[in-house]
Amino acid sequence: MSFLELKNITKRYGPLTAVGDVSLSVEKGEFVSLLGPSGCGKTTTLQMIAGFVEPSAGTIRLDGRDITRAKANSRGLGIVFQSYALFPHMTVFDNVSFGLEMQRVPKGERKPRVEEALSLVHLSPYAKRYPRELSGGQRQRVALARALVIRPPVLLLDEPLSNLDAKLREAMQFELREIQRKVGTTTVMVTHDQAEAFSISDRVVVMEAGRITQIDQPYRIYEHPETEFISRFVGKTNLLPGKVATATGAGATVSLAGIAVPVENAGLSVGETVTLCIRPEKLHLTAPSNGLLTGRVADRFFLGSQWLYHIDGPLGTIMVVTPNDGSTPAEQGAPVGLEWSPSVVRVHRGAMAEAPDVALEVTG
Amino acid sequence: MTRNGPVALIFHTLVVIFMLAPLAIVCLVAFTPENTLSLPTKGFSLRWFQAVFHHPDFVQSFWNSLWLAVLSATLAVALAVPASLAITRWEFPGRGFLNALFLSPLIIPHLVLGVAMLRLFAVVGATGSFGWLVAAHMVIVTPYVMRLLIAAISGFDRSVEQAAFSLGASEATVFRRVTLPMILPGVTGGWLIAFINSFDELTMSIFITSPSTVTLPVRMYMYATESIDPMMAAVSALIIGITAVAVLLLDRVYGLDRILVGQH
Fold this sequence. Notes:
The complex is a heterodimer.
Chain A: E1 4-13, E2 16-26, E3 31-35, H1 42-50, E4 57-62, E5 65-66, H2 72-75, E6 78-80, H3 92-102, H4 107-120, H5 136-148, E7 154-158, H6 166-183, E8 186-191, H7 194-200, E9 203-208, E10 211-216, H8 218-223, H9 228-233, E11 238-248, E12 251-256, E13 259-264, E14 273-278, E15 284-286, E16 293-302, E17 306-313, E18 316-323, E19 335-339, E20 346-349, H10 357-361
Parallel strand pairs in A: 3-8, 3-9, 6-7, 7-8
Antiparallel strand pairs in A: 1-2, 1-4, 4-5, 9-10, 11-12, 11-14, 12-13, 14-20, 15-19, 16-17, 16-19, 17-18
Helix pairs in contact in A: 3-4, 3-5, 4-5
Chain B: H1 6-29, H2 47-53, H3 56-89, H4 95-103, H5 110-124, H6 130-154, H7 158-166, H8 171-200, H9 203-208, H10 216-226, H11 230-253, H12 256-261
Helix pairs in contact in B: 1-11, 2-11, 3-6, 3-8, 3-10, 6-8, 7-8
Keywords (chain A): ATP-binding, Nucleotide-binding, Transport
Protein name (chain A): ABC transporter ATP-binding protein
Domain ABC transporter (chain A): 4-234
């Protein structure tokens, strides 16, 4: 039995199913992220764990105890809200101390524990300040200290970093993970930012339209997305529709607009409609005659450590990302060849869905 | 922030002068030693202030008004806090109606309310009752309190309460330790506006005060219909002074911007 277990959790609002049949097991000390676009039900799921929303069906167990209908104030979970939700009329010290006070921790014991929590988030000198006198990052740390000081069995983070600017967000990501490792608290984080989810989670739960579509380690999700939606949502990807031309033993070829592309055979049958999914960084630029495909550089973007190319060819525009190794990049308009190894091509069965807006919205 | 041009500046100055000049003149006239409201005055005297305190009916009316305003404002706040919380946060049948009902006294002329209350008091046998006078004033001041409170509660981040819950606080504790302190500027501002409105109310009160419950505005009105002398100015100056002190205190403690504009 896992530490935190969600079993067939469902939340319906009238005819609308916000969360449908979600099952998830989180081990003790694990850092799990719920990742998905807005409206996918990830926040509702978190709120059901927190006890702010009552599930329509299913059970939630914490350390073997059924807490499905338990009140939020009896669960003892630590929660960091997107808005931080600090008590504006209390000092940093009082904010952090509040939870201990509610647990009737004696006054003498409260002080050292608050101080310990504040030093964990490097805010000891700010104990006497009010939240309005702190920066966004500092408020975030207060919220974290306030949630951790009660030594919760599970820490819930609701988009904890989304209100910070890009630079600070990255720094806080690593710090968050470091603190989580140090205290060892089981953590569930909700985020729409895949970079955030990937960089600090042990496992990522991808949600789509109220359902879980994949639970896996970040690396596995990126390399082996189980659905086309995930491959679009997670990082950049090239999606190419085609038909299986040959399938023999371990290998197969897929015909894309008349060009045969070798792929690994995963029980494909000849004539089947498939969508190939190739990550831009798995493609390499070569001389025009050498590659599996030829094309022309339509556009190129300098990203600092990388170059992003848009290559126009017989299959439409293909994105290619190459590391900036210091050599001269391909010129705009120059003819180039594209090559890749068959093992990097992911094959999704069925035709391509018409919803590329997600891919445009979220970039890697 | 855009700066004002010279025309706008002159206009604003004139508006401020227009608003403040009568008050300033009343205060000046209050110190006249003469028997008429004359300006410029020849000397300086406190005789009209002394005269006020030698009129026991005025002193009595002042206390009537003060108690009336304190009670009606406090009761209105006590009623409006739960009412505004319910109206702002919960969907329930009759919510819109309740909201309109609480705000309706704003659009009913006080004259009409006065006549209606007069009839009501006669019917229930409450003529001359101070308690019923308080109730009537509550009707008038509650909408103001509701308006400020609803504004304060609408801008309230509910996750702050959720945070308190998650830390183990009971609902009563959350209200006492988190919700109430956070809407306190709205509560205080509402109370202040209610107090001022009640203290100032004349039109309705004329109909429903009895000799023992006559309020200060009614007393002044009755006095002024008979004779205008500088004692009226002295009473006015006293009221202006008390109000100014109250507002200054409030600004010191909470900041008027926060209370009346709802800025945090």
